[in-house]
Each structure stands twice: as C-alpha cells, then as structure tokens.
Specification:
The structure is a homodimer of 434-residue chains.
Chain A lengths: L3 E6 L3 H12 L1 H8 L3 E7 L3 H8 L4 E3 L2 H5 L6 E4 L6 H11 L3 E4 L2 H18 L3 E2 L10 H8 L5 E7 L2 H13 L3 H11 L7 H4 L2 H15 L9 E2 L7 H9 L2 E11 L4 E11 L11 E8 L3 E8 L3 H18 L30 E11 L4 H11 L4 E9 L3 E8 L2 E2 H12 L9 E5 L4
Parallel strand pairs in A: 1-2, 1-4, 2-3, 4-5, 5-6, 8-10
Antiparallel strand pairs in A: 7-9, 7-11, 9-10, 11-12, 13-15, 13-16, 13-17, 14-15
Helix pairs in contact in A: 1-13, 5-6, 6-11, 8-9, 14-15
Chain lengths: 434, 434
C-alpha cells in the first residue's frame, strides 16, 4: 500500500520527537499499521535548523498554509501550539478534507467544540491523544476502553511540572520558590511558569477529560482553577502527619445536579497509588460503575513520550484507511503478514538478579566457601545477610547482581553438594525494571 | 440505526455481568456507540435460572450451535470457557461470518493462531479485551495506544488470586496454605486453585501480551511457569528487609537473541508502583522505547469489571459498522448528536473533606470557639491537632468530614473575623476517592 503522507507543522520539542520516532521505528510501525507513515514536508520558522534534522529528502517551508493546502498530504500534524496560527491552520486543514493530529490542549479546551463540529461536517479525524498526559493512552482508554461504563469521576495528576515541584517540596522540606527555581534550571519548568504552576495547563486537559467522561461540550470557562504557588512546606508536613500527601489534581465528577470541574491542590491518602506518583510523572484515575477504579500512569510530557501519542494517532488514521473495515486493528497488534518468528528463549539464557536463601551449619568458613563458589561462576553479590536458625544453623541470604540464570543454577547445583548446606535452597528472581 | 444483535454463550459470573452492564447502562452505551446493543438470545445449561435473570423477551436455548448459526445474530459472545465446546462454537461462529467476543484466555493461548487466521480469512473481528486483566483496557493500549513504540518489555500482575494471597502472606506473616484456605472461603480462589496458584492462568495471559508486544505467534508451550505455592513467609520477610516485595509476575522481554516469556514470583523494589498493587488488583507495566514506562491498573477479574471489557469490544464492533468510516470513534467519546447540556457546577456546591490550618493566639477557649463555629455551620471534624508557633501563637489543624464547600467558606469567613485568629487561613481539599 502507498505510504500515509504527513505534513508536520512545527519541529520543536514534540515535532522533533515525532520525526525521530518515525525514523527510528519505521519498520515496527509499518508492521502494525500495514503501511508506511512518511513525513513529506515540514513547516518551520528556522529552515536551516530543520534541514539539519530532516535532511534533504523532506520539503521544508516557512508557510504552514502551503502544507495545509497541499493535495498530496493526507494528514496534518499540528505542533505549533497556541490559539492563533494553530487554530487557523487546523481549520483550513479540515476545510481541505485533511485529517488532523494535534497536541494542542489549550486550543482544544477553548475552541474544541468548533473544531470538532467542522471536522464532523467535513468527515475527517482530529486525533488529540498527545494533548492529555503525553504518552499515556488515556484518551483511547476513555473513548474506547471504558465505553461500557457510566463514568462517575476522573482524578488526575496531569501536569508534570507541578508534580515535580510538590515531590521535591515534600522530600526536602523546601519552600515553593526554591524548588521552582531548581525546576527551571533542570528544564522541568518554563521561564514563565504561570500556566503550569497556577493550574491552567491541568485545567485545559481536565476540560477535555470531562467531555470524554460525560459527553458534555468542552467548557474551559467553567473550570475552577487553583495552583500550588501558595502552598507552604509546613502544610505538606502537617498533611503527612495526618497520613496524606498533597498533589495538584484535576477532578471531574458526576453529581445529581451537574458536573464538578476543578483543578486544585488536594490531600490524598499516603498509601494510595496516586499519592506515590512522584517527580514529573502523570497518572489518571478513572472510576466507572462497572469496572471500578482504573489507573493509567506514565510520562506526561517530553519529546519522545508525547511523540508516542502523536504517532499512535497517525497509525489509527493509517489503519482506518485499509481496504477491509474489519481489519483496521490486527488481532495481535501486528498485521498477520508481518508476524515474526523471533524465538522464545529458554530460561537458562535469561539474565536477572537473584535472591538466594541457603540454610547452612553455623560453622567457620561457610560464608567464604559460598562466596568463592558464586564468584567462580561469575556471579557477583550485591547484599548479604545471615540470620541464626535454631542453635547450630543459620540462613544466609544473598542478593546478586544481574547474572545468567544458567550460571546461577550451575553454581547452586555445586552449592547443594556442599556438606554444610541443607536441602531446600531458595532461588527467587529480582526484577528492578531497568 | 438498528441495534447490534448479540447472542450470549454462557450466563455465569461474566455472562450475567454482561447482561447487567448492558441493561444498566443501555442509554449511556448507545450515546457512545451510536446504536443500541441488544442481547437477543442466550445459550445456557440451566434454562430456568437464565429465565429468572433475562426475563421473557430473550430467547433461551441449551444449544449453542443454534445461536451460532442464527442469521439474525451479528455477534457471538463466548463466555463458556475451556478448550472444547467453546473452541468449536467460536470456529463455527467465524465460519458463519459472525464477529466474536470472548474472555477465554486459555483457549486463545492454545488455539489463538488458528482462531485468528480463520477470522482473518472470513473477515470478522475477534475481540478479547476481557481475556487479559479484566476491566483494564490493556489490549487496546498495547494494540492501538502504543503503536509508535518498539516495546522492550512487559511485566504484569495478571492474576488476582495469587496477588491476594501474597498480599495477605506479607501483611499477616501467614503461610501459603492458611491464606489459600481463607481466599477459598472468600471466593478469591477456586476449590481447585491449581491454575491460579501455579501460574498457569497468568501464563495464558502473558502469552497473549507477548504476541501483542512483539508481533510473534501465540506460543503458550514455550512459556516458563512457576507458581507461588512453595513461597515461605520468611522469604517475604527477608525480601522486605532488603527493600523488596514478592509478586507473581508475568514478564516478557525482547533480547537480542529472542523473547523471554516467563511467569514466576519475583522481588520488586518496595517503593515501585507495582509493588504497591495490593489484594486482588491487577497491573501491567509496559516499557516502550519512545514512551518509557507506562502502567495500567484495575480489577483483573470479577463479574462487572470483566463485563466492562466484553461490552467495550461490542461497542468497537458497533462503531465499526457505522456508515462513515471516519466517525467510528466520536471525537469526544459520545456521538455528536448525543452530547448533553448537563451543567458544570460552581465550587460552592462541591462536597469534599477539608484540611484547615489556622494561626491563633495561644489562649484559653480558642479551640472551643473554633469547634463551635464549625459545628454550627454543620461541619464535623475528623482529626485535630495543635502545634506551637513561637511563644504566644499556635497552629491548629482540622481535618473535617465531608462538607459543602459553600458552608466551609461561610464558616471560615466568620472564623477570620475572630480577634484571636491571624490572617493566612489555609483551606485545602482532601480527596479520599470513595
């Protein structure tokens, strides 16, 4: 099939991520989409900078309208941001019958009703997975995954900057201003941080989530918005004493009389999963009457995570244009003719860390002998401790660094033969996810 | 549009949940799907029991083949389970050109390659969101939400029974056998718990996740499977001392030489989100090269959560049969002509709990006056503590029970007027998500 032809408006943080993801995962994406997705043109302010990234094969222009009106382009990806140029380019793309993918939450929160109505009338898709919670497929979950439910409420940490600041304020007992300055140095906060720290960015996203949850028009002007700049470290400490942590939440809830729509700092139980979402991470809790609580967690911003969501929307469009409607989404994610015979490995070749518990006679030299055996097998030990078991025995616990399972099992076979080692050697795997 | 006509095979735990969800959320689901989804016939063993649930309007038969061959039925939902009858009915439904939705992970793990090939040839959908992790839309996330990524690994708590047992073993220091007996009494474990506790059920699900992640055929026979019946409470305690918890994980990972596919207990860092997934809950971590870590959490079993996933698959089919291909999934989740003008509430009518911090002169009667004022406004206090601030002042912290925000603000206005209360009253909201 012929490639899907994409025109990219903007090549900043997210735009360059989209370019990189498509270049890097070209083959893997085509195995899923059933066809290639190709950026054929970009519209940018700085042509030379763009040329350095995309090379000579891709058309570069400073005129977004030229792309939007190009009949050879199937999909426009809008990553300029803001409510002016982006708005008119998106509306013109729709008028031209092009599908649109955007990460522009500010625009959709203010002008979404008009944009979706125009797109509906013209019969084109407007994908905006990247507009809320970056790489987390929360729009898809709510729009397609939870369709059986009457959704009762949604509560999310949907701004990474403020979650980073609150995490640091708690961990280090520092005031807001100090942590904000540090976040700005680290690139987690912008020079003018108002939109983030005053809750406006979170309210843009919450406005979209409320529409998805309850089937109401986008109503940003009705949102109640409070930020975190007035929070004192002592309130974080008092909250902790009461068993709570403070998070900036976007909350929307169905009540008998109407919909709550509010962004503000809130105390959440310290043991809850959402309280343990730390640093710049995002998480969204959705409560449906059938499914109960579900939670979606991941990176809510950044070049590559946001690009992940943009490209997923492109794949949706590519799949929708396949010949037979039943096969838009392949059963096992990849197209049947693109399945791989990559082998499944046997366990001996798996590499991970190991927890070992050995029950031994409590006599001199035991630990040295065991350590030598492990070391000879190329297995290095991270932690070790010994605990008496009765009067004459002891349990020795090793935590190894990463090792090949076959090597560990060979070493354990030799260890089991040692006269001072009792039977029942325990070997458990350790997963650190890194 | 005319309703989607569903034939239901099996009316047990999940089947009755599907019936209930469709009955209960009929209107809400139609607002999303664009048409009604109607169960027109069920095949069961016990006709009288079925009649009591579905009433007189629905055809009841004991012959699954009759449903599968009925030309008036669009979609077959298979909730019988097992590899024999379910297998032949699904294959016959596909041969008849019917779409199929199933929760049968054991069957798909063993016969998935054949079933998907038949369905592909016949041009029908086989939805199986309910086969992995119950109500969590993890299949959709992996098949559609993360399509931009080269997925590196997936690690999941995908069996609720074993997670419940491990949570209880840790919390109460009890041996496996005791907790298993309790789980059986509570209905979290079956009379013959082998499939769950020995990791077979998790391996069925992991086999499907591996195919979705890497585009390999379903290969259950290659999975390495260990259960939790050999775990001792002392190893859980040792692990905790080292900063870990023990979870039964399904792990599949891409290596240079092939794919790891393994279910076994594993130590995971105690501070990680997945370590804090407690009780019968499920969670799946997916790591993609662009998106990084993402996590999906919710109820992995049970009547209504599993039904949530079955019905979501039905909505996918219903939407796919809409007239214009671009509008299968409505922009804002609900069909444009089904949007609601349900109002957004103002903040005064929001009800939640409150954290209040008041700086006061440290003098007799202060606390009594404050408590009286709150009580007069109908606000009841859950916790309170006082902390000296300098020599003559104190901070008083109240944690209230649920109250109307307007009432709280009125009370605070009165409190601010008290001569012994200093300015800078702090009022934060508390969200307990219940």
């Amino acid at each position: 099939m012929k490639p899907v032809r994409v025109g990219l408006l903007g090549l900043g943080v997210v735009g360059s991520g989209v370019w990189t993801v498509l270049a890097q995962n070209n083959a893997e994406i085509a195995r899923r989409a059933g066809r290639l997705i190709e950026v054929v043109a970009v519209a940018v302010r700085d042509v030379d900078k763009a040329r350095a990234l995309v090379g000579d094969e891709v058309r570069i222009t400073t005129d977004g309208l030229e792309l939007v009106r190009d009949p050879d382009i199937d999909i426009i990806v809008e990553l300029i941001g803001g409510n002016t140029v982006a708005r008119s380019l998106i509306l013109e793309a729709i008028a031209q019958g092009k599908h649109v993918v955007t990460a522009n939450k500010a625009l959709l929160a203010s002008d979404g009703n008009e944009i979706f109505a125009q797109a509906q009338a013209r019969g084109v898709i407007v994908g905006f997975e990247a507009a809320v919670a970056g790489g987390i497929p929360i729009i898809k979950a709510m729009r397609e995954g939870l369709t059986a439910n009457r959704i009762q409420w949604v509560a999310g940490i949907i701004n990474g900057t403020t979650n980073f600041i609150l995490s640091e304020m708690r961990a280090r007992g520092l005031p807001f201003e100090d942590v904000l300055a540090e976040a700005q140095r680290l690139g987690y906060a912008e020079a003018d941080p108002t939109f983030d720290v005053e809750g406006v960015d979170a309210a843009h996203k919450l406005t979209l989530l409320a529409s998805l949850a309850f089937g109401i028009p986008v109503q940003f002007d009705k949102a109640h918005i409070e930020g975190i700049s007035h929070l004192a470290p002592e309130d974080i400490a008092h909250a902790e004493r009461l068993g709570y942590r403070i998070k900036l939440l976007g909350i929307t809830r169905r009540r008998a009389e109407g919909i709550e729509l509010r962004v503000h700092p809130a105390l959440v139980p310290a043991g809850s999963l959402i309280a343990n979402v730390e640093g710049a991470m995002n998480a969204v809790l959705v409560h449906g009457d059938a499914v109960g609580d579900t939670l979606y967690y991941g990176q809510g911003a950044g070049s590559m995570p946001t690009a992940s969501a943009v490209v997923a929307d492109l794949v949706d469009v590519a799949r929708l244009q396949m010949a037979d409607p039943e096969h838009h989404v392949p059963y096992l994610a990849f197209q049947p003719d693109a399945m791989s015979d990559f082998p499944v490995l046997n366990m001996a070749s798996v590499r991970t860390s190991y927890f070992l518990r050995l029950r031994v006679d409590d006599q001199p030299g035991v630990l040295a002998d065991l350590a030598r055996l492990l070391s000879d097998a190329g297995i290095s030990v991270g932690s070790m401790f010994q605990q008496p078991h009765g009067v004459h025995q002891a349990d020795i616990i090793f935590l190894t660094h990463e090792a090949r399972e076959g090597d560990v099992d060979d070493a354990l076979a030799a260890i089991r033969d040692l006269p001072f080692v009792h039977s029942g050697v325990i070997r458990l795997r350790v997963e650190n996810f890194n």
